[in-house]
Design brief:
3 helices, 7 strands
Length: 144
């Protein structure tokens, strides 16, 4: 098992950061780590939501939201033979802004192997997502 994580401070309220982070179908607008995210059910994004995530250099990934605590956090999980990947997205108040922690945990019989295989890409992508979320949240925050 292996977990990759990054943390970033954002000069925007947790509610503003949540509004951007939970609008998953628009992620491609603020991070190059995502080609597209498509929701696979017709209901609002939340517990049990299913999404199809496409990322450069990775196979398409079907994920299900397993934890959902607005405006604080959500986790989505994808499963493939021998591997369970859980991506957690957490927002905490920090002074006048927010602190965001993004993490990806690889488990299952082959989780250690896949984590080793995609280590550099995973670290790069979660950093890109954190930095893109920061830019988008702070830009939108200053426009209000």
């Amino acid at each position: 098992m292996r977990t990759f994580s990054t943390q970033i401070d954002i000069a925007a309220s947790p509610e503003r950061v949540w509004a951007i982070m939970s609008d998953v179908e628009r992620w491609r607008e603020w991070t190059a780590s995502i080609s597209s995210i498509r929701r696979l059910d017709g209901r609002p994004f939340g517990q049990g939501s299913r999404v199809l995530i496409r990322q450069p250099r990775l196979p398409p990934n079907y994920s299900t939201v397993t934890e959902f605590e607005p405006p604080r956090s959500f986790t989505w999980v994808s499963r493939s033979p021998g591997v369970v990947a859980a991506a957690r997205h957490v927002i905490e108040p920090a002074g006048d802004g927010s602190r965001v922690t993004l993490s990806v945990h690889f488990g299952g019989m082959l989780g250690w192997f896949v984590a080793r295989l995609v280590k550099g890409l995973t670290e790069r992508y979660i950093r890109m997502e954190a930095e893109g979320l920061k830019r988008s949240s702070e830009t939108q925050n200053s426009e209000c």
